[in-house]
Amino acid sequence: MNFDLAEEQRILKSAARNFLAKECPKEVVRRIKESEEGYSRDLWGKMAELGWMGVLFPEEYEGFGGSFLDLVLLAEEMGYHVCPSPFLPTVVLGCLPILLAGSEDQKRRFLPAVSRGEKILTMALVEPNTGQEVTLPSVNAVSDGGEYVLNATKLFVPYAHMADCFLCVTRTREGHDAQEGLTIFLVDAKAPGIRLTPLDTLENDKQFEVVLDRVRVPQENILGGVDRGGPVVGDVLTKAAVARAAEMVGGAQAAMEMAMQYAKERVQFDRPIGSFQLVQHHFARMWIDIHGARYLVFKAAWKISRGLPGGIEASMAKDHAGRVCRRVTTLGHQIFAAVSFTMEHDMHFYYRQAMGGDLAFGNSDHHRTVVGRELCLSDSPPPGPLVPLS
């Protein structure tokens, strides 16, 4: 059994860490998070030049044909540096559905532009009163003269204010389960009838309420066919859960390293606090937890990359990463003590990332339910597609 990354993947991971260490230090992170845009256009352009946005795209769409595991490695390094960017909304939530179900015209319209860093995409899915699963929202898209008219309110839409296109998931007919009757529309973000309201979030990231009021969408902007969006949404959100778990693992690694450095320097009772057994046990637990979470994430990403069924592995990874990263960042706060709770300290970046990441794409309780049902402990149907809460 070989658990090592391939040489090309080690180079990709190392290059990403070095690049972000230089281009995205914490003072830059603070400035970006306080800005109205919530990301750096300059940094986004440099990431595009490195090929990150096209990591999953075939060469004919100006990508370099990487695997999903390659994307997960980039996500982990972004989590390590708490890099604020619309990378996951654009590449995973936006482009993966187009790769999976888009027409050739739709692929050529969006994928090369995303690869060059010229377009930002996002998904509008969650509706008011939606829980951890997409239940059965009322029909909010109707056919009218060769177009569809959308009337809906969507919550927690990341980077909606900067997006060029929304992948709006809505219902075009009543169904008997969560996925039946769902349709994905490619909606021009500047179309008449769209209103945005910023939302306050735990992670202090850029998420919005999007109201679509009689927004007209041509039929050629339907992705994958009418009533056929459910399986695409389920597949993409499973992958998004793995990518988000990788971000959290990277953040937990950085939080542990920061706390370890402090434990070596902070002296109490004439010795560094890291020399005390209880503190060493804290770090041993962190290290074991992080390694376990990373291997679960990598296993899920590897199966997805190979085209193998990876739903249960994705849920195991997301559940474990969520619990681990909350625990690691909490212990990190305890090691630093009161100073780390000030807004000037870096630890709160990682704590917020862990808390927000645990809720995104199904929390730990949801994913344990998925695993339990996969183990045939219940005759009830499996949960519906995961919701990108934050």
Describe the structure.
Helix content is 49%, strand content 15%. The protein contains eleven helices and ten strands. The chain has helices at residues 7-23, 26-34, 41-49, 68-80, 87-101, 104-115, 230-265, 277-305, 311-336, 347-359, 364-374; strands spanning 121-124, 141-144, 147-158, 165-171, 182-188, 194-199, 207-218, 222-223, 267-268, 271-272. Strand 2 (141-144) and strand 3 form a beta hairpin. Helix 7 (230-265) packs antiparallel against helix 10 (347-359). It is globular and about 80 Å long. It starts with 6 loop residues before the first helix and ends in a 16-residue tail after the last helix. Mean pLDDT is 90; it is low at 385-390.
CATH architectural name of the largest domain: Up-down Bundle
- The helix content, as a percent range, equals 40-55%
How does the major sheet shape up?
Answer: 4 strands, mixed
Query: What Rg, in angstroms, do the CA atoms define?
Result: 21 Å
Which structural class matches the secondary elements?
alpha+beta
Number of helices: 11
